[in-house]
Amino acid sequence: METSYTIRKFVPNDLQAIMQVNRVCLPENYTDFFFIDLHQRYPETFILAEENSKYLGYIMCRIEIGLSNLGLGGLTRKGHIVSIAVMPQARRKGVAQAVINQALEGMKYYKAKQAFLEVRVTNEPAISLYKKLDFEISRTINGYYSDGEDAYVMTKKLDPKP
Length: 162
Ligand code: ACO
Ligand code: ZN
Description:
This protein is of the alpha+beta class. It is built from four helices and seven strands; from the N terminus they run βααβββαβαββ. It has a seven-stranded mixed beta sheet, with helices on both faces.
């Protein structure tokens, strides 16, 4: 299949355009400081897709240390997908899969052993996407979102780099 978009790391010059993609696609929005701080700390997991210098989508993540929800024992490094979105006109072309796969490689670079995220329990496109990438629902957080909706926590084990 023909894919014409480019996957690359975020640079600070992309900030306003990526904040606009976030505002168009999601009700969860953030300050410019929040985006820049995640980029400064975890540049390998802040990835975007573009086509003919138009922005199609992004993913941004952070690395956290906490209890494994996969029976990995004790404290583990986990890659947290904080936000991912693809512009409406660019959907179902594999853009989300491509940016997630690149971010998962970045998480492995940071020595994370698993990846996780929260997703609205009614967000069927996103839940289907994560299931396709072998994330599994590990629990529900009641009232996680500011409008009261519940979240699933979805988790995936990361195989170490060969
Ligand atoms: N319905 C059913 N399955 C879907 C859908 C859908 N609408 N969209 C994606 N999928 C599944 C399919 O299995 C698809 O494979 P296929 O096209 O071969 O059938 C697979 O996911 C891969 O899809 P992509 O093309 O890579 O996904 P896309 O680039 O369209 O982006 C996304 C998916 C990010 C969920 C997009 O719809 C979006 O931006 N939605 C609004 C923002 C959002 O909900 N973000 C996630 C919030 S949770 C968080 O950020 C942690
Ligand atoms: Zn989160």
